Each structure stands twice: as structure tokens, then as C-alpha cells.
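Board work, copied verbatim: CCA tRNA nucleotidyltransferase
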Amino acid sequence: MLNMAEGLSRLGALAAHPVVRTLGEAFQAAGFELAVVGGPVRDALLGRETHDLDFTTNAQPDEILAIVKPLASAHWDIGRAFGTIGARVQGEQVEITTYRADSYDGLTRKPVVEFGDSIDGDLLRRDFTVNAMALRVPETKLVDPTGGVEDLVAGILRTPIDPAVSFGDDPLRMLRAARFSSQLEFAIDDATFAAIEQLGQTLSIVSPERVQSELIRLMSTSDPVRGLRVLVDSGLIEQFLPEVSALRLEVDEHHHHKDVYEHSLTVVRQAIELERTRNPGADPDVPLRLAALLHDIGKPRTRKLEPGGGVTFHHHDVVGSRMARKRLQALRFDGETTDAVAKLIELHLRFFGYAEGAWTDSAVRRYVRDAGDLIERLHILVRADVTTRNRRKAARLAAAYDDIERRIAELREQEELDSIRPELDGNDIQRILDIPPGREVGEAYRFLLDVRLDEGVIGADAAAQRLREWWAARD
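↓ predict structure ↓
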């Protein structure tokens, strides 16, 4: 809960920040107002770390530039048309924007840019009250025309104006509500949530790239599940990731299986916990978290109700991998992320065969080869996928995965497992068999790879002899 005395003290510290103080004094000397705005003010009050410094002012872009130039080691005006000047001051990157009073046409997210004449008017156009506060500098005066401090105390997300108008102006704000719900661990007030339910379809005017960006930010929070529930419960997720809400399979009184939706959310949380344990201090692993969320999206399409009350989801791993690839491509995710998520989903069931009986060294090698550089993420996903309440079963599966990781480590130490390849390359094959480049070289290479996977390192001479025998038998 917000402690106001401590919060005000932290605002004082923000105002005393060398960059904030320098800019505040410079703008005051030039006869203009300046205020730190939005996230930095909110985070200072909450005692959270502040990463970026954003300012607002009554100075016009050219006037901002004139004031900032002598203080900055670099500056840029790519946002000049929107009133924003960027600069690097004393090693800190800052953005300073002229007061705005934009209007929207209701058809696109692009506002008709209009500069305002008051800080209160500028704050009213922002997304949520907790982001609509400003700290005037250098005098250190909090400006809060919409009750942001009260909402911080209550842990509530609320729009500064009628939410139907706010979301109608910019539908991306609905996605931001879900993200801030997770990021700040705040609830969304009833009127704001109702507006998301009513206006969800307007998200269609937002570009896939912007939706993707907000999804990444949500999945990067410490607990994305809170925001994911907002998206599913409001129906907003239907506009860009309907496969998640589809996990809420209808319950059949004669056939029983675990709640796939709740299971998937649990897997996300457990994957994040393992991610932090195994990779402390690392940046959030968004591809891993997406794979955890989407790993079972093939189940609704593959569910089959069997006689006697059984339920099967045969090949849901392969089907889900294809579905995830298609969806991530539609959201314009980069190829590396898309490939990683699809491959993790495709492989996430492979381990459960190991739990039923130890694999040969050959099978372990193939597991590592197929996972490639995703093997550590696959370790986390597979472990996180165990959500059974049966303690004996959970312990058995954990012990089995401990064993496979031990064997992988041993084989890696013996054989450089991460770079498994035949002991003869394409040039060797052509020389030994006296054949030109072509399809037959590829077939020979795959034969030697199978030998390598099945038998480990046998030496170049033995590999050459096996190659000749294979070639002779092939003829």
C-alpha cells in the first residue's frame, strides 16, 4: 500500500535527480513550465525503480530544442510533428513533449495533433489516472487533476475520462489496462472493465505490430497471469489470440479431464519461477513464456471423447505447434521467436515417453539434437508442464527429468553433444565414394548422422568403413 509520507519523500528525490534539476532550472530560466510526467511520477510514489524520464512543457518543439541543445550530448527530433524532442543529458535519455490536446477520428489510432496550453488538459488525454500525474520542477509540485494518488492508494486502474471515450480514441489502451494490471498488480475498476467488454472489437484498427508489442510487455511482467485473465474474461483476447480462450473447454458430465485453461496459466507461472531459479538476473524469456501459454492450444481441435469416459488429445503437440506458428506470424513476431515457440510446443510431450522407461543413449542424443539451442528452455517448459496434485506422480516425473538432465550432462561432457554431426563431412563423403555433389551426398550424410546418434563417436576410419558398406549394400 502507498505510504504518502514516503511517497512525497521519493517525489522530492525525483525532483533532485541531477538531470531533472538541470532541465527544470533551464526551462524556468527560459520562462517555460516543465514537469516530469507519467510513469516516473507513478513509480516514484510506489517506490519502484524509474527507468525513463519523460517531461511535458508549454514550450513549442523549436523552443524545447533551443533550451536542450546546450545541455545535451545528443538530441533528435524524429517526434517533432507530435511535439516531442529527444535528448541525452548527463548520460540519461529523456523525451520532452509540448502540452497536447489531441482529437481522434474514431477510425484510426492516429490523433489529429493539437498542442495544448495547460498541463491539466494534457494529463486528461492520458490512458489511466495513475499515469496522469505530473511533478512540476524545479518547484516540486505534484499535479494530479484526476485522482491518480487516490487510485494508487486503492490499487485501481481507471481512465481519466469516460472509458468509452478514452478507449474509443485509442483502443490500444484496453491492452495497456491488462498489462498495467499485471505490472502494478492493480484491479480494473468496473466501468473501465465494462468498456473493454463493449469495445473489444475496435481493437481491429490497431496494427498487429502494436498489439504484439503490448503482448510482449505483458508477458515480460513478473506475473502475466493477472493480465491474461483480464484479456480472457473481458473477451478482448478474441481479437488477437482466440486460441487461449478456446482452452476453456466445455465440461462433459460423462468425460473428465483437467481444466486446460487453468493448467496453462499454472504452467506459465511455474515456467517463470523456474526461469528465475535457473537463470537469475536474466531478462524475461518471452518466447519461453509464450510457449508455456500456448503449449496446449492444439487440445480443443484434437479432443476426442472415448467410450467409458476417457478423453484423448492425440497429436495436440504437432497441431498446436502449427497453430502457434500461424498466430505468431499474424501478429508479426520475428522468425526467431516464432520458430522457438513452435518448436518448444512440438517437443513438449517428447519427455513423457522417458518417464515411462529410460531411453537409450541414442534417444537422448536425438532429444538434444531436435531441441538444439532450445534445450534449456525445453527443460523448463517440460518441468513446468507438471501440474498434477498427485504428489507421488509429481515426484516421479521430477526424478525422471532429473535423470535425463544428468544423462544429457554426462553425454555432453563425453561427446560435445551440443554440436552433434557425422564424423565425415560432405567433402569426405564425395572423396571416399568418388561421387559429385548432389542428392546422394545428402543421403550418405544422413546415414552417417544416424550412426553418430545411435553409436556415438566411432572414429573417422570406422565411419568411412561403415559408409562404404552402406554404399555397397545400397547398390
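The longest strand covers residues 92-98.
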